Amino acid sequence: MAPVTSARARVSRRLAGDEGIAMVLVVMISAAMMLLAFLLIDQVRAESDRAAHANWSGAAYQAAEAGLDDYVAKLVDDHGYYLHYVHPAESTRTSTTGVKVGSSDCNYDPKNTNPSQVAWAFTPSWTYASGRDHWCELPNGTYYNLEIFPPGTAGNSTTSVRVVATGYSNKQAASSSSTDMRAIETYVRPANLADFYRFSNADVSIAADTYGKIYSNGNVTHTGTAHADIYAEGSITGPPTMADGAVAYPNGTVPSTKLKNHPISFSKFLVSLSDIKNAAANAGGVYLNQAGTTSWKIVFAANGTFTAAPCTGTNPQLNPGPTCGAATTYAVPTNGAIYTDVTAIVSGQVNGRATVGAGQDIVVAGAIAPVVGGDDVIGLVAYQDLYVAEYAPAQLTWDAAVLVETGTWQGAGASHGATSSMTFNGSAATALGGSFSAQYTTRVYGYDPNLQYLPPPWFPAVDDTLTFSFFREVNP
Questions:
Q1: pLDDT tens digits, residue range 235-250?
Q2: Could you tell me how many helices (H) and strands (E) the chain has, helices first?
Q3: Can you tell me the distance from the alpha carbon of 74 to that of 470, in angstroms, rounded to the nearest whole number?
Q4: What is the pTM assigned to this prediction?
Q5: Euclidean distance between the first and final Cα of the chain, in Å?
Q6: 461 three-class SS
Q7: I want to staple 60 with a disulfide (CB 3.0 to 4.6 A). Which of 92, 167, 204, 286 is the partner?
Q8: Could you give the CA distance from residue 227 to residue 149 in angstroms, rounded to a whole number?
Q9: 17/454 Cα distance (integer angstroms)
């Protein structure tokens, strides 16, 4: 029996021993430390990636802001910029007729510090069927893209220009990732003279209902119903009947939310005529200049052209009118600028966006109207005065945005009789007061709300003010 007992004792002693436990613990601890090291390395890598993406994302947002600022700066210089040009960073536009227009002058080329914009000569409605296919690079190596949605269109039913700016960084481009793109959307609208039915540097007297805003650096006498606000640095008397939420602001009580700076210096609008002349003479417009000519007879046609005939004689607003030579036909210029240093005698149906500037007077010889379609507008800018000609029809309707820089608008002749009537639709800004009462027995003044969407080219802004009605970040 002794051998059995000895064997059992040996097994018990071995089972009770701790030889090899240290090795097991070392292996287990080593494995745990390796796992912890892997987890820490992964965490560091993840944190590094998050930091990198945060930097790329921040840079992308700044690029989008830079693109937005660049476009807004162009809107300050040219309030109809979106109708005149395609920005170098703007996605390719596809017109309603399928024409594609875009600039590729700054695609990924940081050496090109002055990329070219491309003229837009189509309707104020388009799509971006090609997606974001144009980008401009900033000095820090980031990029931005722009998409523009004009007011009063399918993509933008407001009266403001909708701008969507998208940015990303060059590191992201290398990784072909879109996760760090940032996009900003804003609605911006320049305040323009054409926003006002009547804008005057002197007293204003109205004996009819009005449907657009009125501003005077003097007093306003209004005996009709006003359907839009009235602003006066002096008094507002009549009194007018205020309707549709319109408010009267007399004695300079205009809130800054309505007009940022007032009184408004009318002299600042003189630059508009200089701009028109320069654009007509040097930037693709039509400059009417011929020795011995005292006025030009300009007649617009519905096919997008106009004729201009040189005329001689004094007082072209009076009967029987001036003597005119052979007319030349021109296309309405893309930049909209038509200018003469003398008097312009205007009539016809305008197809396009045009402003006629005259170094002397503007004479309305007959009916003036834009072609119905929403993308046509006519502006009339006179340095001295605007007259409705004595030989104009006894039943006259004319639509325009008017700026008379040093004088006023008025009728040129005696009464056309008890049944005569004149209907004006548009906007009128004059340095002095004025009246057509002696010429037309019935006078109807209306405001064309389309001018809020489509002011005439080269019409001046009011205080260079831009109103941002909306600003937010959107999903790119």
A1: 999 999 999 999 999 9
A2: 6, 34
A3: 19
A4: 0.67
A5: 90
A6: strand
A7: 167
A8: 29
A9: 97
